[in-house]
Structure formats: structure tokens, C-alpha cells
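Handoff note, outgoing to incoming analyst
You'll be picking up this chain. Sequence as last confirmed:
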Amino acid sequence: MIRTLAVLATLALGACSTAIAPPDVTDRRTPQSLPPMKTFGEARVTQPTRSNRSIAADILDLTFTLESGRALPVLTRFEGPITVRVLGEAPRSLSPDLDQLITRLRREAGIDISRVSADQPASVTIEVLTRRELQRAVPQAACFVAPRLTSWNDFRANRRSSALDWTTLKTRQRMAIFLPGDVPPQEVRDCLHEELAQAIGPLNDLYRLSDSVFNDDNFHTVLTGFDMLTLRVIYARELRSGMTRDEVAARLPAILARLNPRGQRGGALVASDTPRAWVNTMEAALDPRSSPLRRRTAARDAVEYALEQGWEDNRLGYSLYALGRLSIGTQPELAVAAFLQAGSLYSTDDGTALQEAHVATQLAAFALTAGQSDIALEIVDRNLAAVSRAQKADLLATLLLIKAEALELEGRRTEAEAVRLDSLGWARYGFGSDREVRALAAEIAALSPRNRQGGGA
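Most recent structure output, in case you need it:
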């Protein structure tokens, strides 16, 4: 590992001179007919390792605050069995992914939830639209959930009414989820996980959480062990709709002791709140409508703010990761330094293995660009398991394509072809269309010195 870091620290020096491969590079390697789409089986989640005191604070903040910062006066949940129906032109991947999710909610969260046909009334309606139609109404939303609705027509009729105000709910009876169907299967699945979890459970996101989909950093997109524990707590027999924050807080210690006995042995450390100033800075860094310079400046400010707060958790890591991503094209040395710092920070916590893998993907790409095939292979192989556990097909495909190009550099062409074929199956789930899959393969191939202009093939 020490050798890896030492080599990577020098890789960025030549990154600016990298020439993009000619358009036909991957035509010689990517099959004319792509392999079948790969899909994931049963999720393998790990339980949270922090103390129940810390988990209780997280659950209260997730449950009694909206993302906007507005307080929710009472706990709301469904009282009784929950039914789910699907309307609209659903892609083929939606039904099996939804069935897997509902099975997990029943088994891991202990929730009485099941599917019904589209023509039956349901507690939760999932309506599939086109991305264009959804974003015409809510421009910044990839997908969203709204209360008291049963259809898209209901939403359009009530979108400016108090009916959609979460703070006025006393209990949950009808919820509607709206998601696009003309996007990659992984994006559809991610919407199912986050929006169905919010339809029945927490409505807030917390940047301090490293092991949850309830975090705007979007690293985790499949419900984790912490998320299932949170839902199990919300639907515990000791709680009911209408309870205040203080009433729920008084019952949480006993509930968590029963549901998560291992949390009784953990330390009492509770993460600090995340100031709105840092959140605003991160949102500015991630805003695609802003100029690259403004986004990089905001990312630097986020790093400085995190350091001033004394954070050594995933919030500092995310600030560094964002700075690295935004600096690749203009300051590769800074990008590598930011990635190395973020990766080092993430590596100290078993709960941030997925975040570390995202950083590792960037470092592996730098290593491939510099012709350091052994370093690229070492990085990829060390992170494949974490990515597979998190069921991130897009990231898995990217890592495997980097590995295939690194194997090509070492003359191991038979192995490279097998890995490349595997990667394309995952890419079809993660990126969707054949065009996007081939574009990804071309982008990764262009990193290799073998494929750059003058580098040979």
C-alpha cells in the first residue's frame, strides 16, 4: 500500500498531456452484440457498529426534521398493513427489483408490506413517467415522494395546495412515488429504495451518516443495515403515529436495546450536527448549473470549513472527494492529492468501504493513464468486493473496464477479454442503453497509453 501511494502521488504530473483515443479504439474490443444484462441477487448488508445512543440521535433527526430544516411536530407512519401498486409503463427491471425490496422490508424491517395489482387501491402508488415529464414539473428531482396522493394527476391538481405539506400529517394513509422509466435500470432501482423508504419512514437526509441512503452524498443507494434498523424502530410496537419527539426519544433506548443489543456495547460518541453553511457550500460545489470555477471554489471552501470544524469523518472525506472530481481537468496534481487524503480518511472506518471504492476508482484511472498497470490492478482488486456488496453496477463496470485495460497493458489479453465481457453485462444495468455502455468503454479505453495517439494499439 505504501508503494501504491508513493507512485500515485507522482501520476498526475503527466495527466494533462493525455490525448484522447480516436473514436474507433473500442470498436476493436467491444463486441458488436453486447452480452446480457447482469443483475444482483440478495443484498448482503452489515449492521451498524456505532452505539445505540448515536443511532437514537440519528433516528430522531431523520424522523422529526425535513430536508429543508423544518421541524415535523409528530411521528407519522402507516398504522396497519402497507400495500404497493405500480402504474404507468414500467421497465422490465422494475418488478423484480421492487419484489426484492419488498421481501427485504418484510424480513429485515419486520414491516407488513405487499404488492397489489394496479387496479386496486394501495397505501403507496408508484407511478412511472418519462424523465422529461417528471422534470418539467419538478426540475431538480430525479424522483420524489408526496403525501396524500394516489396518482400523477392528483399531484398536478394539488401541487400548490397544503395537501402536500408533510408538517400537517398526523398519520400516513396514502403516498405516491413518481419516478422515470426511461433511465438505466440501476437508477430506477435506486429511486425505488430511497423513495419507498421515505414513503413509509424517514423524510430527512443527514450528511453525517456514512452507512445510509438517507444522505445527500448518494454513495449508498440500496437500503443498508442501518436503514433497515431505522425502519424497524419506527414500526416498533412501542411507537405510534402522533407521538412527539420527546415521547419517541423516551422510548428509543429500550427499543434499540431490544432490536440492536450489540449497540449497547458501543461507545457513547454522537456525531456533531452539520451546519447549514457547509451544506450550502457543498450544494454549490455540486450544482451542475454553476460554472466550473465557482464549483471548484465552493469545493475548496467546503474542505476548509470541514477542517475548521475539526471533522475527521465522511463529511471531510466527501468535501475532498468533490474537490478531487472537480479538479481533474484543470489541476490533476490537486485532484490526486485530494483523492489520496479522502481515501486515507475513508480507509480508517469499515463503514466507509464504498466511499473508499469511489475514491479508488479515480486513483485507478490515474494509474492506468500513467501506464502503471500493476498499481491499477492492485487498486481495482482491493475494492471490487465492497462495490459488489453495495450493488453499484455502474461503479463495478467502471472498475472492471479499468482492470481489462490494465491487463491489456500487461499482455494478458485472454484475461482482459473475459473481464471486459463481464464489465459490459454490469454496465448494461448501471448505464442502460447500448450507446451509453459503448461510450463508457471508449472513455476507459482512452485512458490507456496503448490507445492514445502515438501510443500504438
